[in-house]
Amino acid sequence: MTLFRPTAEQIAALTHDDRPVCAFLYDLDALVRQVRSLVSALPPGADFFYAVKANNDPRVLRALAPHVGGFEVASAGEVRRVRAALGTSARIIMGGPARTESDVTTLLAHGVERLHLESIQAMRIANAVADATGAVLPVLLRVNLAGPVPGATLTMGGAATQFGIEEAAIPDAITVLRDCRALRFEGFHFHTVSNNRDAAGHAALCAAELALARRWAEEHGFDLKLVNLGGGWGVDYADPDWRFDAAGFARLLAPHLDGRTRVQFECGRIVAAYHGAYVCEIVDLKHAHGRAFALLRGGTHHFRLPSSWAHDHPFTIQPHEAWNHDWPRPEITNAPLTLAGELCTPKDILARDVTVPRARIGDRVVFLMAGAYGWDISHHDFLCHAHPERLFLTDGAIVPERAA
The whole model's pTM is what? Predict the structure, then answer.
């Protein structure tokens, strides 16, 4: 698995005479190689869906479509995004909390094949809307395990969170579901953790979830057609060269698949993270109370991930030799440097006190691993700053904008 590091030539191509550099670059060829390696690792009887929330650009969706089983969405807007990019043939499954009648109407209209229910209220809404249209909607019940569940950056289950139906209430939910004539119960959904870097531990968690689903199916007398085990295959932002052992994970999980119950995964971060970079020009350097700051054309309004996860995002500094002013060029050498954006808030930080060999005004900071949960989770219009360029590469060349 590769890591996209833009070349000096690619970064130079971003230079404009009238404004500092600020751009996302994505390598679609490397993205395809990544997803093919992940899908090929899975055992028979498992489907790999892409979690659209990680990066929903149409060019990303089109690049992935031939290589994944389908697309997992969490909103009506994402349903429409996938359909607009890929047409009616793409398989779509839908999850997420706070479902509304409008959501269910949209998924039925656009041929979404399955809904993951997170509450009794969502179940009743889905049943009412489907019944009114004469449809029968396949559903899974999302389970919030009793826990605790160790080993991941984010935990959606095994704790008091807003996600899923708590494990102890699943029997009651099954009872209610039996009376929902417009819903077809097919199994369970477990998206318990996100960004688990322990492949063996994650395989053990998934095996335990499968065993629990089978026990419920036996106790309540229904055919368990499907278990969705969510995503959670981790990346390590502190070590860009580290990789989740997808092959080892699949090998450990394979003995727990019985050939009768189909298994699905819905992964986003591990697919898209490695193949995007966020490039920002340093527009100012300053010292304040003993610390050095580089101020960037850009920031967390474009790339919120470092702030939301409270980490120092990996970066390199690409020198840019041109200096067109008649005053000395400020620089900082061999010193800790904090990378701050252009927003009027002290929280606009992308990396803090990281020692750099050299940084000058006009040099370009290249944030690696920016392909997932970067632009897509950011507050783009806070302070109404200009948006970055967003450029996609294939065969080393930029995909024309008309392909968006």
Answer: 0.94
